[in-house]
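Continuing the batch. This is chain 6 of the set; chains 1 through 5 are on the previous pages. Same settings as before, nothing changed between runs. Recording input and output for traceability.
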Amino acid sequence: MKKKEIILSDLAAAVQEKDRLSDFCTSDRWETVSYETAAASGRLLIASEQTFPDPVTIDPKLTGRYRIYVCMANHGGGWAANHIHLKLTNDEFTRVASPGNVSSYIQWSATEVVEESLWKCADMTGQKIEISKIQDGLPHTSNVLWFRFVPIESEDSAAYSEPNPLRTMLAHMDTDFHCLDVPKSIHDYCNALNVLKDSDVGILCQEVMTDLARYKVPGPEYVYRQKRGEYRENYHRHVSENREKIYPEEIAYAHKCGIKLFAAHRMQLSCFSFPTSAPLYDISFVYEHPELRCRARDGRYTEFLSYGYQEIRDFMIGNILESARQGFDGVELIWTRGQHLLFEEPVLERFRAKFGDTPDCRRLPADDPRLMEAKSDIMTDFFRQLRTALDGYAAEHGTTPLKIYAAVYFDLESSRKDSLDAERLAAEGLIDGIIQSKMKVWEETADLLADDGLIDLSKYTEKAKTKYVYNRIFGNRIDLIVSGIPAYRAIADQYGIDFYSEVQWEGQAPPEGFVNAAKQIYAAGGKGIALWDCAPCRMVPLAEWNATSHLGDPQTVMEMSDQTEAYHTIHKVLSYGGRDMRYVHPGWRG
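Output for chain 6:
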């Protein structure tokens, strides 16, 4: 006799610890609220931003394997606004889960709908579900409406008994990747890696805290300008101070999962944050060396230090060598978030030495081959020094040299204008992989030419007062990724290096949108898929992770569904707390 599907929709009745529930909002209990949708009705659990209840458990009293679906509502905005922690009795870690921000791609407000997504497949024999809200993390709400258990019949249970990840994808994690789960022990820092364990991710590039972050403890008079500022600063300080323990633990766990762990370094050197932001990423080295900054065409200093100076190259190589000492398998060098070489004296000197004093290179357009070559010479010198340092460390300590992956712009030409000639670096054996990112920065000077066809520097200065001389594209332009693939793929094939292309930024498409992006990447000749900000952003919304975690095989991707229902189900809310919303939502009142 086949087992039937089961929905636990009255969670107030199902929770074992009734003393941790309340019919109204209190500071230490889960509030229960009645709800109704066409699919289910009952009482949901919710903990508001200033509510800190203890965990509760539910015993479904099931035996055998089930697909477990969970339904949640998104009652807030931002990546920390709404998430909950779920755990089965036998799980090593809790799973941070959230609904997607469906309001970005459907006509309804997020408060008018709820989302049901697959949580996991598991043998439920003897297992309970623990529901919790982290009490000392970033301000957020937590809610869950129902759990649905779909039995896995004997004929298809084998597909879920032993996951077989392909390890052909690359993922990236932001420096804030544990802001949602608040590790209590060194081992807890492996939580995000545990989510990746059953995915196709084979390389995880984790942003690391090195001497780039030198925190000064604020005095007692200091007031954080944002609610999350104090928590985030304390979190980053803790990671920085304990990195000698945290990173080896993560590396060992990653290897246990079959994943290589790379240290991701943002290569820009600058200090700037909006006045209402906490100064999380201030770098004392930058403040100490204002004379080493990049200069714009008209000689004005920018807020970035220049790789034209040996002091900068030495500083960054020292930080990257720390990743070698900690045992990482490689490094991801992120070159897409700032400036690295402009028109400071080392660039002018390099240009004059190769091409003479005329023309003045500051007046040449960014795509002039001479200017690109002079900048490429300097950046290639940096990569040579880095490769020598990493190889030397490996030889001295009897270890394998770290792999070097470069995260670059949409297209090869834009990266060359920004001093990064990927073909030259690959030809010299200075990089082992290319990550084609979702960003492009370019200098717009076509409207600034003088009569001699070169850039008029006075017009350049005037334009900068009212308009941006530098422009950027960032995020969703999968068409630009596709257009840049052939050139990068040719380099990867010719020099035998790895190549990954990123799909859209997290939260910027419905789940099937990421699948369609992967199809376009593979159809254009892409070799591998890269996912930016897997944690804390992409792995948390269940539907998005279900759609993106297994994009490692081109043939499988081409056969994946283009239908929304394959990844999640959106249900219209008919009522909350007895208030009927089926005709006109009261939030429309004006």
